[in-house]
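User: For my dataset I need records formatted as: sequence, then structure tokens, nothing else. Please produce one.
Assistant:
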Amino acid sequence: MRFVLDPATERFRDDVKRFLDVALGLGGAAGDPIAFQRQLAARGWLTLAWPKEFGGAGASHLHQLVYNEEMAYADAPFANHGVNWVGPTLMLYGSDEQKARYLPRIASGEEHWCTLYSEPGAGSDLASLRTRAVADGDDFVIDGQKIWTGRAHLADFGWLAARTDPAAPKHQGISLIMVDMKSPGVSVRPLLDLSGRHHFNEVFFEGVRVPRANVVGAVNRGWYHIAVALDFERSGIQNFAVSRRGVEQLVSMTQSQPRLLCGRSHLRHEIAERAIEVAVGTNLAYRVALMQANGEMPNHESSASRVFGTELVQRVAQTALRVTGLAGQLRGGCEPRPDFATGYLLAASETIAGGTSEIQRNIIATRGLGLPRG
């Protein structure tokens, strides 16, 4: 099967490619992600799919699809928690005052957000979180710890899941709260990932006072709002764009250095397998976008795209190291070659972040195949 997009969508894809050629240079990456976000905002692309009444462009799902695909393929720093799920969730559950205060500043790139969900003892089982928010007059007082918080050191606000009723069943005593990251009692400490980059952080809350007005939706109903926010995260095309780039780099390298496959024909077949998987996975992601464009609500389809895509990123990274051998373990350096070693290290977390492969398979089994819970 091959998806054929309409001419207007393909013209938009060309516009995105031309912009990226200028903004990122020849295969490089933007050094300042915040500045890059503002460039996107200036073009009206930062909130491309948001409704126009909330500061977006009201673009179609297919425009958003090719935008995400080309941005990921170019390794552009376009991921934005505020745009991807904070804003859409506020549109659904936020008060009029919250929408007026936060949505315009997210759309303009003025304010940036981090997601404060995971804790040392609550990752995939997020409902086990222990960070407390205790009512005190017109405020909530927050105490606890979050971990693996991306870009918390750059964020203006945090999208916090906290327990507001410890006596309630664990899914029913959680609230969703917006926290100013400059508030007294908030401390952010860096966590280096396997590649040595500072992207993640651990965040501590010690007696942090937050106005009740910062609660999104109803108190103790936050789990259900969070579930909707997580659905905004699970589309999938980015993983296939990244994998496509990796396969193309491998093909180019082996064409210019045939010795890499000399006496190892099985690796030629392995690269071909990865290329086929990229094509299959891209169709899965396109299917999700087309369902949305037709007014349908993908669920297990998104999980299928996600689990296949995250595991494919890892398989491509493994194939790259098998092809390049010991030299593939070198990172950086002066030689103009793909940094497969860093890609391999970063791929390790793909099947964990945003919902593990096990969780995605459970969704596919129960909601897609109708299997009983075991």
